[in-house]
Amino acid sequence: MDIKSISLMQKLMNLIVPNNMDHTTGILANYLLLHYNELENLPLNRVTADCFVSPSSVRRFCRKLGFENYSDLVEARLRNPEHQQKISVANLNRGIYHPAVLRAEINENLFLCFRSVSNKQFRFLASSMAESSAVVLLCTRPYNFWLREFQNQMIAWGKPTYVWEEPASYRPFFHQFGDSVCTVVVSPLFYLPNAYISEMDFVQGKKALISHDVIMKDPMYPVFSKQYDQIVPLHFKNDEYEYMEIYGKYSIGYLFDSLLGEIIYQQVRQTEKADGTLPEGSKEPLI
User: Fold this and answer.
1) pLDDT at residue 143 tops 60
2) Has residue 151 got a pLDDT over 70?
3) Residue 146: its pLDDT value, please?
């Protein structure tokens, strides 16, 4: 399964922003999301009629998302494993949305995941990002939404940070930064699209993989261990897709918020006073 098969919904959601809703891009993205579960029965002429756009506009829209044409986009939907409504109903029936269950499961997974990250791994991740010229986070929905705030905070500290899906589309970027970029692949479900495997050999600089601990049992693990400078296998209570979609994102958000604190600490240390003391108000990190 290639990257197109898992990223269509995410790509459409990324285009739903306030300043985009009056433009062709936002109109088409919103329309296709609202009709996501029936795209295979939605002909191009109906899309153009309902959205008041031309076939060429739809074609340009599809190419912007990485698809050849509208048919290619629909085909990606048919291969897409994210049956969101079915997942939500299944989670409802299992009681996962109950406040008491949410609280207990979130707390347990945060504890389990953070225990599985050693101090050495934690500091390596933070140092690699702090010392790089740019940070690239490769991840798919829903984790990319949770990493946007981390991205904003990093940019506020003067560190170019990008949240992307497809490494192949950004080869010129990696070439520009060379070995000064830090790339972190975030895949708690341990589903690595082929692009994430094949393209890592082209990516220079420090590379890390944050994934489910089942990765260590995968036959491809020897390949992964050669491609990455650091592999962080997180432990989760449950590895089912439905369960991970709810609770995996909390653990990733918690981990990256903690990493942000360590990165800021390292940045502050670089501006120590001449007498070696930290600027007023700064403290040693808790990790």
Assistant:
1) yes
2) yes
3) 83
Q: What is the pLDDT of residue 240?
A: 81
Residue of 7 and 139 predicted with greater confidence: 139
Cis peptide upstream of residue 142 (ω within 30 degrees of 0): yes
Task: Look at the pTM and tell me if it is higher than 0.85.
Answer: no
According to the model, what pLDDT value does residue 203 have? 85
Q: How far is CA 103 from CA 17, 24, 106, 245, in A?
A: 30, 41, 5, 15
Contact residues for 136 (Cβ-Cβ < 8 A; gap 6+) = 161, 162, 164, 170, 173, 174, 181, 182, 183, 184
Which is nearest to 161 in space by CA: 206, 140, 192, 130? 130
* Closest to 33 (Cα-Cα) out of 58, 16, 53, 20: 16
Q: What span, in angstroms and rounded, lies between the C-alpha atoms of 161 and 230? A: 19
What is the rounded radius of gyration, in angstroms, for the C-alpha atoms of the chain? 21
Sequence-separated (6 or more) residues with CB below 8 Å from residue 164: 136, 137, 138, 170
- Confirm if 106 and 250 have CB atoms less than 8 A apart: yes
Q: Which two tokens stand for residue 47?
A: 């899309």
DSSP string for 38-92: GGGG--HHHHHHHHT--HHHHHHHHHHTT-SSHHHHHHHHHH----HHHHHHHHH
